[in-house]
Amino acid sequence: MKIISAIFGTLVAANVYATETYNIEAAFQHTNSSTDGGTHTTATGIDGTYYLKPITIDGTQPFMELDVLQKASKFRARYISVRSETSSLPQITYYPVGISGTFYVDNFVFGLNNETFNLKSDATHTYGVKSTSTGFSVGYWLLPNTVVKVANTSNKATYTPNDSSQPNRADSTQTSNSFSSHTVTSVGDTQSLVLDFSFREIKQEQTSTEKNKEYAAKARYYPEAKYFFEGGYIYNIGDNTINKGKTMLLGAGYAFTPRFAMLFSTSNFVGDVSSVKSAQTSTTLTANYRF
Question: Which residues on neighbouring strands pair with residue 121, listed in sequence order?
């Protein structure tokens, strides 16, 4: 009888202290943005991520950093519905679809991504647009808590008139090369500080060539592993006056359970050229669940 009780007690204890893991992560995201030029855009997206190994839900690690700290390779797919309208043009709707992968090999990390959408022309939209973005990255863990990456991204948009009377519009191409670092530091108990720094060189080509440089920094502080506050700053300089300016970022996230979390972020871009109506404010709400 004592043996049976001992076995039963061991099983109960093992169940109580069993480690929770997950392989799948699903997210729903909604973004609203508006510019001082009168453009209003909403984007609603869903995405799913499959990890090639189980991720341990460790209550001492910041909840949004588990896959990075545990070096979990993954595949991700997402679908977005975007609606945009201006004061002078009717509403347009398009549906970007993207796939990506991140793969850890020893102290190296490799990334690939692709996203595309196709907007057909009609009576109110004289040009159709087909856009394709591709990218790759290579990173290395310089320290146990710091990874650095170099990345290249290329986007090409082609324009098709809705009838032969419309003049042809030149294709546009944007390429960027970047260097970034990501550091996760424990600052006592379950507190953590996450620091991101990046530099990008951007080249836009259509009827002319424009080059910009972008510097970015973001800090995310976890008072406890289950919630964070963050702030960031982006500075863009160069030829393209639409993107030239400063962006301030603020955000927060809270894990209500080890598997369910909500995140909120807002950004405000102020252009450096007052004659160009490019100032933009965006807010994003994300719900995230782990299976």
Answer: none
